[in-house]
């Protein structure tokens, strides 16, 4: 655990050593705040004390932001050669991947914590379903875990950040949109399977305040397989070299 924590701190500090973290947090808060309070189906238009508008826009904005954060985490290190230096230390491939995963997850959590004033403001406007809000934040974290693992996998199989970004988006599109669209075109077992693979199905369930073991299993499974594929990609590269 010590090695993972050291890598986590290293990666987390690297976000703030550049403008990456500041840009991410400012843009994320700006977009989510704008659509939550000012535009479209915002809180005032709905006329209810709810954070559903925020969760809806954050659901899509994180889909783009997370690949932008993860695209450099392995690909850039492979390009400049620092990954070889890191792997010569007394750390395993799993520790490297987990350290990078937790660093990115902590940054996402920091960004979500900064939206707590939205929660407090909505609470001041009227009665709030606190359980639904807390579950919405849980859904955001679980969804972020899945996207981070996908992003790390994409970053681990290329030296090019742009390729890693586009590949992570491509894989994410299947979970975000395509499986959901296809599920409406099929019936029976195939339709149920595609509906289960759709991320919106599970996120919507959690954000409404319903915590189902199937939803937790879904997000944790994607996270595990994404991290496993990223570690496998790193291991194969080491074997080849």
Description:
With 241 residues, this protein is mostly helical. The protein has one domain. The protein is built from 13 helices and no strands.
List the helices and strands and how they pair.
Elements: H1 2-17, H2 20-37, H3 43-46, H4 52-70, H5 75-80, H6 82-87, H7 93-113, H8 116-125, H9 130-156, H10 161-183, H11 188-197, H12 199-207, H13 213-240
Helix pairs in contact: 1-7, 2-4, 4-9, 4-10, 7-9, 7-13, 9-10, 9-12, 9-13, 10-11, 12-13
Tell me briefly what this model is:
With 241 residues, this protein is mainly α.
Count of spatially separate domains: 1
Total strand count, please? 0
Average per-residue pLDDT, rounded, comes to: 85
Distance between the termini: 27 Å
The helix/strand class is mainly alpha
- How would a crystallographer describe the biggest sheet? none
| Rg over alpha carbons | 19 Å
Task: List SSEs in N-to-C order.
Answer: HHHHHHHHHHHHH
> What are the segments in which pLDDT stays under 50 over at least 5 consecutive residues?
none
Strand-residue proportion: under 5%
- Provide a count of the helices: 13
Helicity range of the residues?
over 70%
List its salient traits.
0% strand, 82% helix, globular, mainly alpha, 241 residues, single chain
């Amino acid at each position: 655990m010590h090695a993972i924590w050291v890598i986590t701190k290293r990666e987390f500090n690297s976000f703030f050593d550049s403008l990456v973290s500041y840009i991410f947090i400012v843009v994320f808060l700006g977009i989510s705040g704008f659509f939550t309070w000012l535009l479209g189906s915002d809180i005032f238009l709905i006329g209810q004390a709810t954070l559903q508008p925020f969760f809806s826009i954050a659901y899509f904005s994180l889909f783009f932001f997370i690949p932008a954060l993860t695209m450099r985490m392995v690909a850039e290190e492979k390009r400049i050669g620092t990954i070889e230096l890191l792997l010569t230390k007394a750390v395993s491939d799993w520790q490297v991947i987990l350290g990078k995963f937790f660093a990115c997850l902590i940054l996402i959590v920091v960004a979500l914590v900064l939206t707590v004033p939205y929660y407090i403001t909505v609470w001041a406007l009227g009665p709030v379903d606190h359980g639904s809000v807390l579950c919405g934040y849980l859904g955001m974290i679980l969804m972020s875990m899945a996207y981070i693992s996908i992003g790390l996998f994409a970053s681990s199989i290329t030296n090019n950040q742009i390729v890693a970004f586009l590949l992570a988006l491509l894989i994410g599109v299947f979970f975000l949109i395509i499986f959901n669209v296809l599920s409406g075109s099929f019936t029976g077992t195939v339709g149920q399977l595609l509906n289960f693979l759709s991320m919106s199905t599970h996120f919507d369930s959690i954000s409404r305040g319903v915590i189902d073991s199937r939803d937790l299993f879904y997000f944790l499974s994607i996270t595990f397989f994404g991290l496993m594929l990223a570690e496998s990609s790193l291991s194969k590269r080491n074997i080849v070299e």
